[in-house]
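User: Can you predict the 3D structure of PhzF family phenazine biosynthesis protein? Sequence below.
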Amino acid sequence: MKFYIVDAFSNQIFGGNPAGIVLIGEKNDFPSEEIMRKTAAELRYSETAFVKKIAEKEFRTRYFTPAAEVDLCGHATIGSFSVLLSEGIVKPGEIYINHTLAGTLNIEIGEEAIFMDMGEPKELFKIDAKEDIVELYGIMGISDENQGLFNDIELFAQAISTGLPDIMLPVRDENQLNSISPDFKALSELSERYKVVGVHAFTVNAADGNIHCRNFAPLYDIDEEAATGTSNGALTYYLYLNNIIDKDSVNQFIQGETMGRPSKIISKLMSDEKIQIGGNAVILACGNINI
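Assistant: Sure. Here are the predicted structure tokens for PhzF family phenazine biosynthesis protein:
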């Protein structure tokens, strides 16, 4: 099997979010789940995607963290199709089908970015009880006081999914965002209790007009992640539900700054509430896995 190390949601090597990409030959089957998990653990990135072409314009992709399989991973998908583009397996201007555990999703190979469909957006629950709010912000290492305010709109933490469930956590400004220092053991326990992947903290009060965010998923052995497509897809729906953005909007998210790996993730919210996430990727290295 051929593998690649790709920096996704970036135009520069050592930026964005790194992922492992493994191409499965058309005549070969996926390896066992144990082998794929061990491969992901050996590559040591937050996610590794295993991609197999199954028809002229159709692919099947499975995603593994070092700990377990997950339904979908945005940055590994952008990375996968960047690799397929570099290998001439997909072409600019075409739309492809990607079969995942989160559903069958379209991938658009644009001239300037690759866009992927998110799963159906779903609001799962809101965290608005005072004791739950205090607990959540406390686990993240900051006070809950005056955090969820934007243009006189009171924002609450909400669990949203566009393929993977995450808690959207509003904070008032970039200083608060940068000061987050979670209790990772407590966050893992909370994530397990709420049945979510992790917490996606964000502020809409950034000086540059972008939405700045940080993502934490220690339950899946990811203390912090530099770019998360599924979480920013969920955040796009959160912002829409809370009347911060409108349909037919294009949004830019900045993530990974505190990790020294700044990422740019673009989202599109369509009139039918379908969400797309897009960006670029660069290949750092490639080689063979001798299994």
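The CA atoms of residues 55 and 144 lie 50 Å apart. Helices lie at 33-43, 74-86, 130-139, 174-179, 184-194, 229-241.
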